[in-house]
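Researcher: Go.
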Amino acid sequence: MKKVLIAALSLLVLVTASYATLVTNMNQSAIYLRLPSRNASTDIDAVYFNPAGLTSLKDGWHFSLNNQVISQTKTVNNAFPFLHAASYDGKVNVPVFPDVYAVYKKGNLAFSFGFAPVAGGGSAEFNKGLPSFEWQFAALPALITSMGIPTNQYAADIYFKGESIYFGFQFNVSYAISEAVSAAVGARYVSASNTYTGHINGIQVNPNMPALGLNGTLIPATTFFTTMQGYYGMIGNPVGAATMGAYAAQMGDKAVDAKQTASGFTPVLSLNFKPAANLNIALKYEFETKLEFTNETTKDDVGMFPNGAKTRLDIPAFFSVGADYAIMPELRATASFNYFFDTASNRNGLQDFINSNTYDLAFGLEYDISSALLVSAGYLMTRVDVMDGYQADSGFDLSADTIAGGLRIKLSPKIDIDLGVMNVSYKDYSKMIPYVTSSGTNLGSYKETYSQKTFAFAVGLNFHL
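Model: Structure:
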């Protein structure tokens, strides 16, 4: 039972609205959702993507308010024959995913602030559980039948919900060294929270053994194993009685209600180069964010979250490079590359199951239809390389291909609106899982496949004063 809950509740480590990486959220503006190549940005969202590029803004104040609505479905297909269902869906819904930016530019200097969910940002709810939660209960009929008591049904009320959010508060100072070169230094304060709630209640089986008063109707599994404990004790089988007593204890209702909180700092360095009037190149390095989570536990029936215990779950460092090129004054092309140092990050041992670091590559085009309207579109390729031991039904990461598009409406020289949509197609991942009961019975190995899909819509309102 404890192993079941550990697998289930580990999903909060991985629940995220991120499109591009194992941990980090890169979707940090409405502009990104219409053009997912922002590493060389000299617009307001450069507060996050390219702080050194902010010196290209006009003197004065600049503000941006953004929100994304994100819908994600995680699907697990499992061939274990005793499960009630072959497919399990987890819904991740994020109705509010805000990004707020402010910049003051004067001469060669720019000061900026950004607020964003830099990791996490959603909740995953599994109303019917997952195979890793359920299979041990699904195997009970076969286990009990092997004891000489015909059994063919089981039931259980299984529910888990995970919520995760890492808020980032970023400050940058940018300076134009020359007309062609600018640099920036910044720091982000991250306040992180993971919340775990769930239960496994009402485990039932339908043993049929009239001699013990069992008539094939569903009864609590605790009642059955307690009855068998008494029976083995009566016939002088202390080992059998002890085994049945252990099963009875495992079949009781279990619940968890716990929260983990942490905070840390992320230094940020960036450089921006403009070697020609129609070309802009940017580099950025974000250092690792060290996060040590502390448990705040209300209920913990399985001893997973001792109140006050600590766990390291860091955000990996990453390096980004980007280039924007004006093919014509009204047509611009952009390219971006991100490389995440996942294997060097402390993720409570999870990093040991990563073969190589995650990277993504993005391209986009932006075209001015008129002085008041521009359209854009882009493609993002994300590649994740992890081992079978990393992937689980309660938390998995997949390589993906993303298409995005949208427009900007310029209401006036001081106000514009960005609208963007993004659709992410993930590559399925399959592995074979061996099923062995706690008593050592090998039930065989069966295929499990992980799938995912994400759709998002964003609106951004920008002011230039």
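Model: Residues 2-464 form a domain with the Porin fold (CATH 2.40.160.60).
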